[in-house]
Amino acid sequence: MGAPTPQLVTVDLGGREVDVPRGGLYDRFRMHADLDAIAADARVPGVEFFRQLPKAKVDSPIGPTWTPNFYYRISTARLTMIAPSAAIRARLPRELSPVELIPGVGLVSVMFFRYDICDIDFYTEAAVGIAVKPARHRGFGFLDLLTGLKNDHLHTYVLSLPVSSKIAQVRGHDGYGFPKWVTGIDVDIDADSVTARVANDDGDIDVALSASTPRQVKHASGEQVSTLTSYTRINDAWHSTLSQTNTLSTGTARFPRGIDLELGAGRVADDIRSLRPIRTIQLDVMTEGQNALHMPIPTSVRTKGDHE
User: Is there a smaller number of Cβ atoms within 10 Å at the N or the C end of the chain?
Assistant: First the structure.
């Protein structure tokens, strides 16, 4: 017999009614969890990272909310690929420019996420993203690129971001401006392997991944914190969203072998195909980590006349 279906309770997000698990973190704390209560959960590797990030209550398109959104235990897998800059530019808004490894060749990524414990309860997610130059940044030298590839601070524009829960979809789409929709997403990541499957509207494969997990290196909390800035448009205005990841166990394989990325029929597969990826140059797998996702803030980007 399978696990019992959790009881649900309806909550309001900026006029949208969403069902969440009764007795879950969102139902109990509404984005402002007691960190001592979180620390008592044996699955949580610690809360020291979050104690350094005090929350603030802000107004947003989804109503008043606390920020950042805390993810207390996560695992992720990312494929970084090279692709023709012409194909990448065709999918980018004109205000953004792709990062280029060499002239004519840019970087794109396919990612899978499993959020075991977070302020909006368990969900899974997949993403197709393009590495872009920081907004208003006029140069992007080789040293800047190396820093980005080391995960110190990346900038991205996301083409697709399906999720497995309605609250994640409403918050991500209405509150952040991300291209989110709800679908079936299975993500399993451990020290041995990565398996992921995103379903299309018919329940068949949109995209699926199978790979061996690179050897993991453990880090103390706060020792390796990376940042990601994502650009979206909300009400026709550009915004940037900061995400901070506290890496606890991670590994990298460069020019990995044995990667099975299956493209079926669906929105995610279509986005990947449109970028015409040439090859995978890196696989990053984090079997244990934490994250703080801040609410978006208005940002300035190039106008057409500024564009390089």
Answer: N
